[in-house]
Amino acid sequence: MKWINHQIVTGFIVYAATDNALFVASSIVGAVIPDRVEGSPPTESAAYWKWRKNHRTWSHYPPLYLGLMAAAQIAISYFQNPKVELVLSLLIYALVGAVLHIVEDGICGKVPVFTPRRKHGIKLFTVGSWREYFFAGLIVCGCLLYRYKELFLVNG
Ligand SMILES: [Zn+2]
Question: Which of 56, 72, 75, 102 shows its CA 20 to 30 Å from the CA of 91?
């Protein structure tokens, strides 16, 4: 999935789930972390294949991000300070963005699930294709329907 679609889809999912602008902004920043930590692919051939070999391994390993989220949650409970809680909540939503990035990569390719080197996934579309934009639009519509479901309920 292209970065712009990672950011849009992730932002809408977090918006639908939280209705919190700060958490949405934080998740949008986090939505590119797994690719950012890998750096740009080198142009020189040997370096490129070395980079490619490690592409979507540790950087896209969900337990790493889930572990950091758990540590941040434990720190929130430990410190019991509103300022610390806000900062760590923003960190948690950046990590939520990273986990959603991995899930989104998992529907257009393969990502590690149980071990960093064994990848799983379903390829619903090719990156950059019209189908990617269609799926992104579908997810955005689903999030808006969920967020504004009261508007569509007859007796609501
Ligand atoms: Zn990725």
Answer: 56
Query: What Rg, from alpha-carbon coordinates, does the chain have?
Result: 17
Could you tell me the pTM of the whole model?
Answer: 0.93
| Spacing, Cα 15 to ligand 1 middle (Å) | 21
Please tell me the predicted confidence (pLDDT) of residue 155.
64
List, for residues 132-151, the tens digit of each pLDDT value.
999 999 999 999 999 999 88
pLDDT for 41 equals: 87
Residue ranges per domain, the chain? 3-152
Ligand 1 centroid, distance to 133 Cα (angstroms) = 16
Measured distance CA(58)–CA(101) in Å, rounded: 14
Neighbours of ion ligand 1 (CB under 5 A): 34-35, 105
Confidence of residue 60 (pLDDT cuts 50, 70, 90): very high
